[in-house]
Amino acid sequence: MQPSQSKNTIVSSFIHSGLVLFYNELKRNLIPFLLPLPAFVILLIVNLLSPGSKIIAGTNGTWAYISIGILLAMTYGLQCFSQDADKKTLDFIITRPISLYLIILVKYLTSIGIFLIWSFLIRNQIQLNLSELPLPNGMGEEWILLTFLTIHAISLFSGLLVKGLERFFAIIILTGSMTYLCYQFWVKLFDLLMANYFWYDIPPYQMNFVIKVFPIFLALLALITPLVATLWQLKNRIPLQHFTAGKTIIGIWLSIYLLILMAQYLFSPPLWPDGTFKSGDWHDQAGIVTASTVDPSYEDRIVLYNEQVKFKLNLTQLGQKPKVLYQGYNLYHPSISPNGKMIAFTEDNILKVMNIKTKEVIEIYNPKSKNNLIDSITTKQPQRSILYKPNFAIWGEDSKHLIYVDFLNDNGLSNLYLFHTQKGLLKKINKEPLTVGDLVWDSCENALYIIGNDHDNAITYLNTNSLKQKTYPMPSKIRPSTIFSLTGPCVIDHRTEKILLVMKYLDTIRIYSFDIHNKEFDLVEQYVDERIKPNIPILLNNNLTAFIFPRLDGSFQYKATKFYIDKNHTHDHDNDHDHDHDHDHDHDHDHDHDHDHDHDHDHDHDHDHDHDHDHDHDHDHDHDH
Hints:
Layout: H1 3-28, H2 30-33, H3 37-49, E1 55-57, H4 58-78, H5 82-86, H6 90-94, H7 100-123, E2 126-128, H8 141-161, H9 166-196, H10 204-234, H11 244-267, E3 277-283, E4 287-293, E5 310-316, E6 323-329, E7 331-336, E8 342-347, E9 350-355, E10 361-365, E11 392-395, E12 401-407, E13 413-420, E14 424-428, E15 434-435, E16 438-442, E17 447-451, E18 459-463, E19 469-472, E20 485-486, E21 491-493, E22 498-505, E23 508-515, E24 521-528, E25 539-540, E26 546-550, E27 556-560, H12 562-570, E28 594-595, E29 600-602, E30 616-617, E31 622-624
């Protein structure tokens, strides 16, 4: 026999076997295949009596169409192999000299073909109302059809997997799992797109891929997967390493997952866009906490005095989607404790502290309370303007103490109070009201550095025990014009013993430094970007290696600082070395130590201080100077 004749014989045998299987399927399942006939005849007669118009299904009719379609898809899918499995004739079928691929193909195409014919005929007799259904945006009739096809394929596999009523349970579980998996893949890609663009800025080709192409690809993959699982079941569940189709489908799913993960790491912005961002804090270990309004209309609006605006606190890590920690009214100035375990914030000027792990929120001080202790030691507050100027608090290095700034007017005139997170109010720090733009607190040295407001860039040193203070004005040669505002955060760099001040005007960010020992100011860094959003604080991490600034479009920009660049390019030789330092400092201020926490301090530094030391210890400390 010649090769051409042999090939024709194989093809003829294949077609003949397929036709025999097709005839047997029609004959055996004739009654289920004709089930929709009465409904179609009724719809056809109604339309013939009312020519020129279709039956309007309405909301209930549309739900009925979808529900009946799902039941019909389940029935047609189950009957492919369930009868053979129940009658134990399945082994006889699969041991016949017919390809398993042909058996699955004929059974699947016969049942799905009949289903699609009925779907087409009935759909042409009615007018669906999908707009009234709670379906995701962009989900039309094509998605309903893909849902039918997926349920049919899963039902075909379930007919082999289990028996009896357990099959319906298996269909529900498998369909839900497949739907959840596809949705998770889709929503990760959609979130990544939304993180880089606002809805109206997304390029059409990217939107089309995410809304149309990728979901259809996932739906087809979800449709093929149960068919491959059916083949694997018919092959007596052979080891996957010997099952090429199974390895291929698993490889495709894993490849999609890995590609999405890589896309998230490579293209995620430092922070998800948030046009209503008002304030925040950045801790390398704990993450980034932000305070923003729930109402998007406050993107370009200012909160007014006595106005109650709904806010939310979000916590996130770099490049990840934020999670809402807390919601309340007028939430401002969230600050993460140095140990990364607590967040201090003000809610309508009420000082509160949240445990990040347990989400427990405790109230530290309420200025509106009739029994608060501050009323008895503070002066009467002058009339405030219409603008809302929220109070704030900063942490001590022990993560237990807080200094609370109580603004008396909009120019920054304030009183300062020392609080303990468990003991409450300890004392008032200042004798007379001070003008405060921001604070830097070196609690280990009982040193508080008060940065003036926008029109007074001086730094005032205040000893928190002796209450002695001294002011150091910024030299006029480097002082910014009054149009620059102190936006914060102001922090202390213990490595260089300098205080950093962040100022901003329109498209310019300036970082100044103040040397604690030499009492000298310097302009450290200037960054210009026309996308900078004015009058909103930036986020500076606790290691001072990078900052994030909000942009006009509501997104955020990551920028390495000069300290990070210097560290990685000029100070690499300092890493992983032990240094012996002999400090010779000449300080001008008085130290009066009042320790409320339990620490053992062992200082081996030689200092030449011109200080008056007055130690008042409330707990057991071991100081070796």
